[in-house]
Specification:
Layout: H1 3-12, E1 17-19, E2 24-26, E3 32-34, H2 57-63, E4 69-73, E5 96-102, H3 115-118, E6 119-120, H4 143-156, H5 163-167, E7 174-176, E8 183-185, H6 186-211, E9 215-219, H7 233-248, E10 255-261, E11 267-268, E12 271-272, E13 276-278, E14 286-292, E15 308-314, H8 334-341, H9 344-347, E16 363-366, E17 370-373, H10 374-382
Parallel strand pairs: 5-15, 9-10, 9-15, 10-14
Antiparallel strand pairs: 1-2, 2-3, 4-5, 6-8, 7-8, 11-12, 13-14, 16-17
């Protein structure tokens, strides 16, 4: 399968709704239910939960690295409980901007997705599940299971650990989750976040460049609600975002402000309300940091009134934009709140806006090249 065909599948084979620890779902054919996704793609799959109709958990894990971005009009200020009520006083909101769907790490269901790489448990992190092998042992193993783990360890540039090996370590990298036997890998969580943060920052910057304007980037926490497994993920999120901002700053010449909204932490590392991350390449000397509870499409401060607002929202790797929005639950999370305040339910929908939301329109964000169409990216790396 070609890469663009895989991306097309990840876009169009997702559920309409997919949520909760029980994997409650609504399919395109109207079927509702819960559970069964662990069997998709195996001999135990059944009914409409088959690989030809829906994504397997391995594919959902890949899908979590996709983002969809577009311009949109704003219907209201985008607060969590806006419920689609049109703001009559247009002076209170931005008329339009860019919105980007971002997907965080999902730890709501054990033993799948990011859990496989970042959480270490006595039942999962065993040789029977492909963990802890070195190269010299690979010939005597189940190559499918071990190969799968080697794929992800290579991706994260890490080594799989057996549970008993990690238990013996005393290092800040590993956090023992209270009242459980789970161990959380702080370093790999940072690496997972870094991929998403680079995507968001580079996309926001190129949107500003295309508009010949400076960007006011509104960042919300994604994967920090019911998907979170440890309380200090907020700190890892912010600390990693600060590190990526510093690394990418020379490229981010079209981002004036990064606004962090509705975070439990009001400062972390280089990030605090009013901070300026200086860089010689920036037209205003650096990127300003704001941390407060601004709503996504709320009218910008006067000093930034001409800026392009780029808003992020928390999406899902196995649902259409809005997720529980399609069940009429309009304020259950940031996903339906975004669908109620913007046009993403149609603009980011592969079944409605099929001319743009498709695998052929895949773009790649990278520190080296910025954001390029997949064909241009391939030409660059092959030169």
């Amino acid at each position: 399968m070609a890469l663009t065909a895989l991306v097309q599948r990840l876009l169009e084979k997702r559920c309409v709704v997919f949520m909760g620890a029980d994997d409650n779902y609504l399919l395109l054919n109207g079927q509702e239910g819960f559970g069964g996704f662990h069997d998709v793609g195996t001999s135990a799959e059944s009914g409409n939960l088959r690989l030809k109709h829906v994504l397997s958990y391995d594919e959902i894990k890949l899908s979590a690295f996709l983002s969809v971005s577009s311009h949109t009009e704003f219907l209201n200020d985008g607060n969590r409980f806006n419920c689609g009520v049109i703001e009559e006083d247009k002076s209170k909101i931005e008329p339009s901007g860019v919105i980007v769907g971002m997907i965080g790490g999902r730890f709501e269901v054990p033993d799948v997705m990011e859990w496989q790489d970042i959480v270490i448990t006595p039942t999962q992190n065993t040789k029977a599940h492909g963990y802890g092998y070195n190269i010299s042992e690979l010939e005597q193993t189940d190559k499918r299971i071990v190969g799968y783990r080697q794929l992800w360890t290579s991706f994260y540039e890490a080594h799989d650990q057996l549970f008993e090996q990690v238990c013996a370590l005393d290092t800040p990298r590993y956090y023992k989750v209270p009242n459980t036997e789970f161990i959380f890998d702080n370093v790999l969580m940072k690496r997972r976040y870094a991929i998403s943060f680079d995507t968001l920052l580079l996309e926001a910057n190129v949107r500003g460049a295309l508009a010949d304007n400076q960007v006011y980037l509104h960042v919300v926490g994604f994967g920090l609600g019911v998907w979170r497994i440890v309380q200090h993920q907020y700190k890892i999120f912010l600390a990693t975002f600060g590190e990526r901002l510093l690394t990418l700053a020379p490229r981010l010449t079209h981002i004036d402000v990064v606004q962090f909204s509705h975070f439990k932490e009001n400062a972390c590392g280089v990030l605090y309300d009013g901070a300026v991350l200086t860089t010689e390449t920036h037209p205003r000397g650096g990127i300003k940091i704001l941390i407060n509870n601004r709503n996504p499409a709320q009218k910008l401060p006067a000093e930034y009134e001409s800026a392009l607002i780029v808003e992020s929202y928390a999406w899902d790797g196995n649902a259409l934009p809005g997720n529980e929005f399609w069940l009429g639950s309009l304020s259950g999370s940031g996903d339906p709140a975004a669908a109620c305040s913007t046009l993403i339910s149609e603009l980011h929908n592969p079944h409605i806006n099929s001319k743009l939301v498709n695998g052929r329109n895949l773009h790649v964000a990278s520190e080296r090249y910025g954001v390029l169409h997949i064909s241009d990216y391939a030409k660059n790396i092959l030169e």
